[in-house]
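Our working data are protein records whose layout never changes between entries. The record below serves as our worked example for the rest of this section:
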Amino acid sequence: MVNPMFIFAFLTTIAPILLFIAVLVFVVLFATRLTRRMENRAEQRLLIEKENSAFQKQQTEAIQELNRRLTNIEILLKEVE
């Protein structure tokens, strides 16, 4: 049978230390997971931003081409008059 003084000594000295270590490990793991999630979200936002930028560039090029064509048509119409 275990000595009651041993149990009391364990509960008053070693258990709080083990509890502190367990809480510390939990906090570190939680912070690590949170950081990874934030990094993944930042990478996803960056990917979406790159896609949006490429799409805007395509739109700009298409508008510029339409403006060139419209200018050419206007020049042709002025020549016809």
Q: What stands out?
A: Residues 1-81 form one domain. Helices lie at 4-80. The radius of gyration is 34 Å. The mean pLDDT is 92.
